[in-house]
From TrEMBL:
Annotated membrane topology: Multi-pass membrane protein
Compartments, record wording: Membrane
Record keywords, A-Z: Membrane, Transmembrane, Transmembrane helix, Transport
Family annotation (InterPro entries): MFS, MFS_dom, MFS_trans_sf
Protein name: MFS transporter
Span of domain Major facilitator superfamily (MFS) profile: 28-434
Parts forming coiled coils: none
Cellular component GO terms, alphabetical: membrane
Main location, first listed in the record: membrane
Molecular functions per Gene Ontology: transmembrane transporter activity
Transmembrane segments annotated in the record for this chain: 24-41, 61-81, 93-112, 118-140, 152-175, 187-207, 255-276, 296-314, 321-337, 343-366, 378-398, 410-428
Database matches in Pfam families: MFS_1
CDD domains xref list: MFS_ExuT_GudP_like (cd17319)
């Protein structure tokens, strides 16, 4: 990161750099937030159609859980290769390609006819979407100075919370549409998928791969951004002449710990995401829109919690302790969710959401501070993809449990145990931020 002394030595850059950062944020961040919202909705909207898939196609609880989770298998397999291809072909082309193909796959969900086609489309959707999240992180490293990336990431991650709130009412409302020989759940998949396709065209017209391609920046602003990013990299390279290899990082036990923690967080998030609409339906005779509105309540609460805990973590410095605290909150809520009526379970999940959504937001600054920037994009993609396999394990296990026992109480208890384990790991592990690996690791 640039030092104050270095900044003072080049005052001619400060004005254009500040102007460029403002323009970049206003032009790029709103688009990325919208992409994240659409991405999340296309990923989790099957949670609202489980009952319809069962009634219309005969897809039972176990098959539904497996199909919901298969998304994350292909997602994990293609995440790192996709991020490498983004660096080769440029963000404009590759992010537009990701959005186009995932939109087509999401729309194709409207035409599944049974378990096999359901599994196939979920695998295709995961493969199409892979690379989006780490691709955005990489984009920030090429366009923003280091002291601005954290703020940009916080705004970008807010898209996940907004999507959690919006997904229920949007999906539930679209499912009320009937006609042209299609059921409401088919219209939902078609409309939400085709919106992603249209957004891909906008990305192609709006986004630029490199600052030098941005006609909306002046030449002085382009130079200031490029000089700042290159200067940061020169300073990092001078401090650590040997670039850490990906292989060395994969042998670093700390990376495995990051993967374990994020796996536990993802387990809880997706366990709640894919089964919450079913719990809500047991509370009363609600239509699809009403289920969607109820589904928004835990996520609205979680937004407030995310920002509250972010403020506390910024004021009282010990990021690991705050991650451990919110994981314990998630554990308590998920355990309680398996102990009472559907209404009690819903209230308990509202409480758990305070913890698991805050944990997701508070977690990422820890590996970002630990990793060398020259290799961080690939490793963050790895952590994200392996961690997101929790999105496969949770719904698949829940589906099997419900089909075999008629209850998901055991699954909820398992999620609570995993959150407690993750809380202990994150609290007691050494995760001090550092610029790179020690010399012996190279």
């Amino acid at each position: 990161m640039s030092s104050p002394i270095a900044d003072a030595a080049r005052p001619e850059r400060a004005g254009p750099l500040a102007s460029a950062v403002r323009k970049i944020k206003w032009r790029v961040l709103p688009l990325f937030v919208v992409m994240f919202i659409v991405n999340y909705i296309d990923r989790v909207n099957i949670g609202f159609v489980r009952q319809h898939l069962s009634a219309d196609l005969g897809i039972g609880a176990a098959a539904y859980g497996l199909g919901a989770g298969l998304f994350f298998v292909s997602y994990a397999i293609f995440e790192v290769p996709s991020n490498i291809l983004l660096q080769r072909f440029g963000a404009k082309l590759w992010l537009a390609r990701i959005m186009l193909t995932w939109g087509l796959a999401a729309a194709g969900m409207a035409f599944v006819r049974g378990e096999t086609s359901f599994y196939a489309m979920r695998l295709l959707l995961g493969a199409a979407e892979a690379g989006f999240f780490p691709g955005v992180i990489y984009y920030f490293t090429q366009w923003l100075p280091s002291n601005e990336r954290g703020k940009a990431m916080a705004i970008f991650l807010s898209g996940s919370a907004l999507a959690s709130v919006l997904s229920g009412p949007i999906s539930g409302g679209l499912m009320l549409i009937e006609g042209a020989g299609l059921r409401g759940w088919q219209w939902m998949f078609l409309i939400e998928g085709m919106f992603s396709v249209l957004l891909a065209g906008f990305i192609w017209l709006w986004l630029d791969s490199k600052p030098r391609d941005a006609a909306w920046l002046t030449r002085a602003e382009q130079d200031a951004v490029l000089d700042e990013v290159e200067e940061e990299q020169r300073q990092r390279a001078a401090a650590h002449p040997v670039k850490p290899s990906l292989g060395a990082l994969l042998r670093d036990p700390q990376i495995l710990i990051f993967c374990l923690i994020y796996f536990a967080v993802s387990l809880t998030i997706y366990g709640a995401t894919f089964w919450l609409p079913s719990i809500i339906r047991k509370m009363g005779d609600f239509n699809d829109l009403q289920v969607g509105l109820f589904n928004s309540i835990p996520w609205l609460i979680s937004i407030v919690a995310m920002y509250l805990f972010a403020m506390l973590a910024a004021r009282f410095k010990f990021q690991q302790a705050w991650v451990a605290v919110v994981l314990l909150i998630a554990a308590l809520g998920m355990y309680a969710a398996g102990q009472g009526s559907a209404l009690f379970s819903f209230v308990a999940i509202c409480f758990a959401a305070i913890g698991f959504k805050a944990a997701s937001a508070l977690f990422w600054p820890i590996p970002q501070g630990y990793l060398d920037a020259r290799i961080s994009a690939a490793v963050l993609a790895l952590i994200n993809s392996i961690g997101n396999l929790g999105g496969f394990v949770a719904p698949a296990a829940f589906g099997l449990l419900e089909q075999k026992t008629g209850s998901i109480e055991g699954g909820l208890t398992g999620l609570a145990v995993m959150s407690v384990v993750a809380a202990g790991v994150v609290f007691f592990s050494r995760m001090s931020p550092r610029e790179g690996l020690p010399a012996s690791a190279h």
